[in-house]
Amino acid sequence: MKKTIFVLSVLGSMFTYAQEKTNSQIKEKEIEGVILTKTKKAVEQKADRTIFDFSEQPQLNNGNVLEGIKKLPGLVSTDIAGMMYQGKILDVYLNGRPLNITSNELNSFLEGMPANSVDRIEVITQPGAEFPATSGGAIMNIITNKNANKYLTATYSGNYSFTNYDKFRSRTTNSLNLNARNKLFGWQLNVGQNYRESMLNGQQDELLTSNTDRIARGYFAKSGLTFDLGQDRLLVNYDIYHNNNDNYTLSKGHGDLPFQNDPKDLREAFYNSSDAARTDNLRQEAVATYQKRFADKSQKLDFQFGYTRSDSKFAQDNFSQDGYFAFDPNQTTESNGQKDVLNNKSVMNIANFKVDYSQPIKLLDGGKVSFGGLYEKQDYDTESFGITNLDYQRQTASTYLEFQAKLKKFDFILGSRAENYDISGITRFFDKDGKLTQADLIPFNKFKLFPNASVQYNLMNQVYIAANYNKKISLPSISALNPNNVTFSGPSTEVTGNPNLQPTIFNNYEIKISAFDYAFIGYSVSSASNQVAQIIRKDGRKLFNEQVNISSMRIHNFNIGLPIPFMVFSKPLSEIMKFNFNPDKINFMYLYAGYQKHEIDNLNNKGFWILNAMAQVILPKDIKLTANYSYLTPKAGYFYFTAEKPFNNSFDLTLTKKFMDNRLTVSVFANDIFNGQVMQVRSNPPSGTPVVISSKYDTRNFGLSINYKIPTKNKLAKEDANILNQTKKEDAGVMQQAQ
């Protein structure tokens, strides 16, 4: 048994070490007629982050971004509580800038992005001082950057899939990426569309049963220009994302309806209803970055100005509603429909300017100093039926200083970020008497310091042990602040945001041992004050879905990952030691397991296990079979909810074949083959009656994905650095500094 464990650990290290060696090869450079091509790593572990490659993994990039994210080992994504990675709340970024959206709006946005437009996803578990303190517990950065060449190139990506539950539904994505350079500048344009038909069945206790037919349409365009000014460079980016979704809902429920059309006389009734909801979201981003470079390549000075505007509209119409009253079934209620049951709008504007500088310094055996500043202003207004019911303003001014140093086998990082917040605003609402009332938001005007420190001991090449600490703050997202309902309205449900939510303060601690990127074991704990959480409770015959602050909580997480080449079961150790590993050519399995526990005062939450297994098998004709299984154990506590069924329970298969000298990639896939992906939770509200909530999407789907890369006219064409949404650093694998 000991020998087997030893062999597994050694082979896991060899496998990833060999891949590291492959990774060091130069990229598409012709030397005496031989072309060496860099092979990307599927998963790469660094001291402060985990990097998942999407571009070369068909099992991740054959659908939309949300579907791919849910397959990442260690990541939990739910409709009720957002996203977490290895026990840490995720703040979601796109190309180094925060999206500032959560919950259902975030899901819709990610569903509208084709997964094959993503290059990689970085999960920064230990953001340093150069990252804003508002990054919270951790950052998930979705990077869609591409490379430009001196000659026009194009890449087309397409995907078609279908589901067949109560009826046949289709999903398509298409995108085109154009890259070119001339004597004056380089340019890139990435455009795409997404059409998605889907189904959602929902059950909210005994009060509401619903079936929703959803049609989602998404369009995006990402453009970039780069101008070389001697050693310096100017980058200009403009991105636009548009989602237009329709939901048609048939429901039956148990609630209170007006008797004889008198809204003040509500009585118990059973009803059937037909409704339609429309969502229209438009997000635009413009960024200009000037990069000053020096004779010393490690010395950098960047100036950046960014502006983001997001417009959102949500409306719901009732086609018909009929039912009867509980006290007398002969007393019926009937409605021919009502236009604008809900009619809500929101507008968000964010402008920021930041400066970053870094240079090497003589510190111990070598080091670097980084410092900079950021000023950001955000305005957020929400409107319901023509009345502005939230007027929110935030101004943030910050500066940071961070030192990095080496001493023999030790690496040190020590820094701090100072941030000053000025948050204010007003909210308007109708009181119990129906009178429109205005009140000031709870102000947040504070100056805070956010230190960070880490130490890493390099046991041997690519094997290290690291300990990290940082203090962060997470501001409530605009969707959590939004007092309007932007999901679904019925007699039995009431969904609202909370404009008086307070920021969350995190103290994060972590220790991790990593071997050759893939194999790792770690433990982390996050202590949070004023954690924002969702509460679902029942009061009488009505469900209330609200956002609240948890005064204090802790999240413990233990996780482990290990790669296992299949040849360990068929070849002797002496032969394996001589084997030259190429991860694209061998059969292997990657195993991940994580245990997570939420500690909340006056709530006895049990911990849960997150399990993931990914296997790659090379079939004849170089056909690659990839299998992915994810499972999250039930009967455990997740904030104010207990999972009665596992959040994750899916088995996916992908078959991939490359043609035309690897320029054409074709994949056939089947997701959630056993149709096990379902969410069912019991709420544990601090007050009110607990409820059981369940939902089932049509997650079992089958499809075809293609990707065609038109080669450059000249293989010696010089590649530029990424210009689509690049915001700071040019080093591969390093996240661009966020806003």
Let me know the average pLDDT. Answer: 81
* Overall geometry: globular
Using only C-alpha atoms, the radius of gyration works out to 26 Å
**Percent range for β-strand residues:** over 45%
User: Helical amount among residues, as a percent range?
Assistant: under 10%
- In whole angstroms, how far apart are the ends? 51 Å
Number of strands: 39
Describe the model:
The protein has 739 residues and is mostly beta strands. A hairpin with a 3-residue loop joins strand 31 and strand 32. It is globular and about 85 Å long. The chain starts with a helix and ends in a 30-residue tail after the last strand.
Question: What is this structure's SSE topology?
Answer:
Elements: H1 2-23, E1 29-31, E2 34-36, E3 43-45, E4 49-53, H2 58-61, H3 65-69, E5 75-78, E6 82-85, E7 88-94, E8 97-98, H4 103-111, E9 120-124, E10 138-143, E11 153-164, E12 168-181, E13 186-204, E14 208-229, E15 232-259, E16 262-293, E17 300-325, E18 328-335, E19 338-361, E20 367-384, E21 387-407, E22 410-430, E23 436-440, E24 444-460, E25 463-474, H5 478-481, E26 493-495, E27 504-515, E28 519-539, E29 542-565, H6 573-576, E30 588-600, E31 608-619, E32 623-632, E33 636-638, E34 641-643, E35 649-659, E36 664-671, E37 679-683, E38 692-697, E39 701-709
Parallel strand pairs: 7-10, 26-29
Antiparallel strand pairs: 1-2, 3-4, 4-9, 5-6, 6-7, 7-8, 9-10, 11-12, 11-39, 12-13, 13-14, 13-38, 14-15, 15-16, 16-17, 17-18, 17-19, 19-20, 20-21, 21-22, 22-23, 22-24, 24-25, 25-27, 27-28, 28-29, 29-30, 30-31, 31-32, 32-35, 33-34, 34-37, 35-36, 36-39, 37-38
